[in-house]
Design goal:
The chain is mainly alpha-helical. The protein has helices at residues 13-23, 29-36, 43-49, 55-67, 89-92, 95-107, 109-118, 124-128; strands at 41-42, 71-76, 82-87. The termini are far apart.
């Protein structure tokens, strides 16, 4: 089981936000959760739906999401082994957040193209220009 990064939530008002974001931090957890919102998915199906994600990284991310209680892992007793992943009730509570992130990304996707084409990271000037 992974260790929760925050055991206390009374340090300051931002701690709660930081704790919530820590559950879906990283490049792939949000993408994995997005795919699992569609329903239960087998490991290889999930791997094919995110082709640039290595098997090792997918396994690690799935284990962390399961340890944090966001997804469920069901193993079917058959040969060859069949493993299916689905959202837990806690994971499903993230759906509005993922939808909001997706809408925000859609609205601001020009920023991502601009950063990719220039080869530099977005800075504060880029963000101010979109407001």
């Amino acid at each position: 089981m992974s260790k929760r990064p925050h055991s206390r939530f009374d340090c300051n008002p931002g701690c709660i936000i930081e704790a919530a974001l820590s559950l879906i931090d990283g490049k792939w957890k949000g993408v994995i959760l997005y795919h699992l919102l569609k329903g239960p998915v087998r490991f290889n199906e999930l791997r094919r739906s995110i082709p640039c994600l290595s098997q090792r990284m997918l396994t690690a991310q799935l284990r962390q999401l399961e340890a944090d209680g966001l997804i469920l892992r069901k193993v079917f007793p058959q040969m060859p082994p069949k493993v299916e992943y689905s959202m837990s009730s806690l994971g499903l509570s993230f759906e509005p957040i993922l939808d909001a992130l997706g809408a925000w990304g859609e609205e601001h996707k020009a920023l991502f193209r601009k950063a990719a084409s220039s080869g530099i990271q977005n800075d504060e000037r880029d963000w101010k220009g979109t407001q």
